[in-house]
Amino acid sequence: MRGGLRLLTLLGVIGAGLAAPATGTETAVPPAEGEDGMDIGTEAGFAAWVAGFRPRALAAGITPQTFDAAFRDARFDPAVVEKDRNQSEFTKAIWDYLDSAVSDARIENGQAALRDNLALLQRIEAAYGVDKEVVVAVWGLESAYGSYRGDYPLIGTLATLAYDTRRGTFFEGQLLAALTIVQSGDAGAAAMTGSWAGAMGHTQFIPTSYLAHAVDFTGDGWRDIWSDDPTDALASTAAYLANAGWQRGIPWGVEVTLPPGFDYGETGERVKKPVTDWQALGVRMADGGTLPDHGPASVLLPAGALGAAFLIFANFQVIEKYNTADAYVIGIGHLADRIAGGPPIRAAWPRQDRALKFDERVELQQRLAAAGFDPGTADGKIGPNTIAALRTFQRSIGAVPDGYASLEMLQKLR
333 exposed, middle or buried (CB, 10 Å; 0-12, 13-18, 19+)? Predict the structure, then answer.
């Protein structure tokens, strides 16, 4: 999860369409103590939080009638908190994630969705300049082409996440936006349902992005992203990506091969070079061809030196504004390519490995810091600072400095 369309935070993600509809397993969340002694993870603590939130909502312009009606049936949901702790883009290895995100079934269903909605998607593409296959890929990954839009009550879900405090400020803002949608008459509180993370409709808008980017493409006076008709949702997705800077006809990235002796310190989004420079360094298309020139580009290694390599362009960063997880961006881009008839990823993945668990990622960061390689805050998020620190450590021990946070590197740090 960028004020992204379906962005939950700069670090949060959903992947709602990657599983069957959530059943809301009642996983117990141990009570903790929040600010001002408020219990966290209890119904009583939730009720106290709602009482404290009410004057803030009213001060933000929500009427007492709107607030009270919307919260009449709102309840704390511990299953929502549990799901927030276990998001697949961060808990799955990228190859496992892509196996689901770009499965044969999802590709076939995407091609069928493209055929069935071709006239609409062509009009949307003409209006917003966003490639229709990309819009379909977002639809497919977010809700399995409208099949799994989520049935969580949004007010209670967002209130649960705001009360939980891990990302309380963010979700309180989303809750205020949801109440604004209710108050404006765009949707009633009871009809406003979505994912466990507060995202709504066919392409999983968060409420602030709905207010900022949703469009009435049908012209019926409503920005309806919830109904069976996907028109407004698909057009709104294109509008968001267009507003974020999408360049029509430019790939998100292409699979490449790297030459022997390649300097892995040159990889990552922070390093941008003209395509001619990458070509001169021996980088080639996966099929051996010359690199396409679509402006400054970076080399990305989502699974380190033993996995696939991609040359990524500006549209990669546009998809990131929808969701910052590299796995998600690659999933959207590659699914769009496959829907358009493109080939599968050619390189093998290091399937003998597994993704580090959250506690292991924190430990890796702590051990890097203790060894004198500063990764920044030990928060379990493998960002540019951690990658840079890990590369320096890898060089110090004679390992390939690809910055990949693997179990092997954690064991070496131990």
Answer: buried
CATH number at residue 81: 1.10.8.350
Q: Are 313 and 251 in contact (CB under 8 A)?
A: yes
What are the structure tokens assigned to 53, written together? 């939130």
pLDDT digits (tens, 9 = 90+) for 96-117: 999 999 999 999 999 999 999 9
The answer to whether residue 39 sits within a structural domain is yes
Q: Which residues are CB-neighbours of 340 under 8 A, at least 6 positions away?
A: 133
pLDDT in tens, 239-261: 999 999 999 999 999 999 999 99
- Of residues 354, 351, 319, 350, the one with CA closest to residue 334: 319
Distance of alpha carbon 331 from alpha carbon 89, whole angstroms = 10
What is the span of the domain harbouring residue 26?
16-85+149-214
Q: Is residue 64 part of a domain?
A: yes
Which residues share a beta bridge with 256? 285, 309
The dihedral through the CA atoms of 92, 93, 95, 96 has a sign that is: negative
Residue where a domain terminates, one of 182, 214, 246: 214
Could you write out the DSSP letters of every residue in 323-370?
A: ---HHHHHHHHHHHHHHTTPPPP-S---TTS-PPPHHHHHHHHHHHHH
Rounded to whole angstroms, how far apart are CA atoms 154 and 179? 10
How many domains does the chain contain in total? 2
Query: Does residue 283 sit within a domain?
Result: no
Backbone angles phi, psi at 194, to 5 degrees: -175, -150
Contact 410, 356 (CB under 8 A): yes
Distance from C-alpha of 393 to C-alpha of 127, rounded to nearest angstrom = 49
